[in-house]
Design a protein that fits this description.
This protein has 14 helices and 9 strands. It has 410 residues and is of the alpha+beta class. Helix 6 (113-125) runs antiparallel to helix 7 and helix 8 (150-218) packs antiparallel against helix 9. It folds into 2 domains: 17-177, no CATH class; 247-408, 2-Layer Sandwich (Heat Shock Protein 90), CATH 3.30.565.10. Strands 4-6-7-9-8 form a 5-stranded mixed sheet. The protein has a two-stranded antiparallel ribbon with strand order 1-2.
Length: 410
């Protein structure tokens, strides 16, 4: 349980944050442009001190409020109102400064800096807020020029359409971000449920099944205890199976009556951030984790050199091998023999578990999953999925079963 925090952590990313950074740059560049435009035509103003005073205010405001346009959290409605007020004031002050071109079709004092104020409304509130801010700027331009010209309509429509489009994109991006975050949360919760289900299968369910078998064999009061254990086992299996997302099932060969390979190709594993992975410990040798299975009817074959793996991956792979051997003991019988083969290839570690039992009848794996018996689905394929590996099962009735576990090297 110590590593579940790292495994279930959901990484949230902001799709709209690059737009806020772009807006910050836009406001700075358009401030420089507006000041340069004013300076280049300074001598044609009748009251240039009005324009100079406005640009002092505009420059101070733009620089001081840079943090407010760094993200949606800091960009409050109060700031947006003040920002748009300064833009509208600059438009209305243009004729007061005495620049005739500002009335007959030239640029106003804030020039294209005004679009940045409208875009801030779009990023914060979406296309509806953008439409309202654009309309207010359009009215200010009409009042400043005293007439509705083709050029004015073109400029106002351009700002309006651009801001509404950006506002709509932001709304879609936010909805997509919420959907993605929810999907990641569901995936993390599903992974945790699967991990808990594997642990339950490997411990509690195994013990309950053993108590049921032993109790039935002993008879008497032990038989009653075994019956109760069996009921609890069925109830727990139903609970575990009901809380999981359906897993992939082994494909069936309709012609040969064999259960063939079913590759659980799953994504990148979540790296736990517990002390066993983050304390600087080196790779673990897989061989000692598997050597303990060797016995009278289990043959263990290993390479002559260490098989290094990440500690967490090595433990999960060893647990999957244990689950495969448990299936051999339960389903193939006490007299069945098993072989464990470890192969250390350049790009992957492969462990094969093979037995000489009766094999798996056609459709048995799918039936077992439907009954809540998820040993193969969770304890084997589920473990390999979580470490980025795959599990392949080959079984032909009467010829035994082979489970191939492959973990790619990172």
């Amino acid at each position: 349980m110590g590593n579940t925090g790292g495994r279930d952590r959901v990484v949230r990313m902001s799709v709209e944050q690059p737009l806020w950074r772009a807006l910050t740059g836009y406001r700075l560049l358009t401030l420089v442009y507006a000041i340069g435009l004013f300076a280049s035509s300074y001598e044609v103003y009748e009251r240039p001190w009005v324009g100079a005073g406005y640009f002092v205010v505009l420059a101070v405001w733009t620089l001081v409020t840079l943090p407010q346009v760094s993200g949606a959290r800091r960009c409050t409605k109060r700031f947006l109102t003040a920002d748009l007020t300064i833009a509208v004031a600059g438009i209305l002050l243009s004729p007061v400064a005495g620049h005739e071109r500002s009335v007959t079709g030239g640029a106003t004092l804030p020039s294209i800096w005004t679009a940045g104020a409208v875009l801030a409304w779009a990023l914060k509130g979406g296309w509806r807020w953008a439409a309202g801010a654009s309309l207010l700027v359009g009215v200010a331009n009409v009042l400043q020029r005293g007439d509705v010209t083709r050029g004015l309509v073109h400029s106002v429509l351009l700002v309006c359409i651009a801001s509404i489009a950006i506002g709509y994109v932001v709304e879609v991006a936010r909805a997509s971000e919420r959907t993605l975050a929810r999907a990641l949360e569901i995936e993390a919760a599903t992974r945790e449920r699967e991990r808990l289900a594997r642990d339950i299968h490997d411990s509690v369910l195994q013990v309950l099944a053993m108590v049921q078998r032993r109790g039935t064999a002993l008879g008497g009061e032990a038989a009653e205890l075994g019956r109760m254990a069996g009921e609890q086992e069925v109830a727990l299996r139903t609970l575990v199976a009901g809380g999981l997302v359906p897993t992939s099932r082994a494909s069936e060969d309709a012609e040969g009556g064999a259960v063939v390979r079913s590759m659980a190709e799953l994504g990148e594993p979540d790296e736990p951030d517990g002390p066993d992975e983050g304390d600087g410990a080196g790779p673990s040798d897989l061989r000692p984790l598997l050597a303990g299975h060797a016995g009278g009817r289990i043959t263990f074959s290993e390479p002559g050199a260490p098989v290094p793996m990440r500690p967490a991956a090595a433990r999960e792979l060893a647990a999957a091998v244990s689950a495969a051997l448990d299936n051999v003991r339960v389903h193939a019988g006490a007299d069945a023999s098993a072989w464990i083969l470890v192969e250390d290839e350049p790009d992957a570690v492969i462990v094969t578990v093979r037995d000489d039992g009766p094999g798996i009848p056609e459709g048995r794996l799918a039936q077992a999953e439907g009954e809540g018996r998820l040993g193969v689905a969770l304890s084997i394929r589920g473990r390999l999925r979580d470490i980025g590996g795959t599990a392949a099962l080959i079984s032909i009735p009467g010829q035994g079963t082979e489970v191939e576990l492959r973990v790619p090297k990172k």
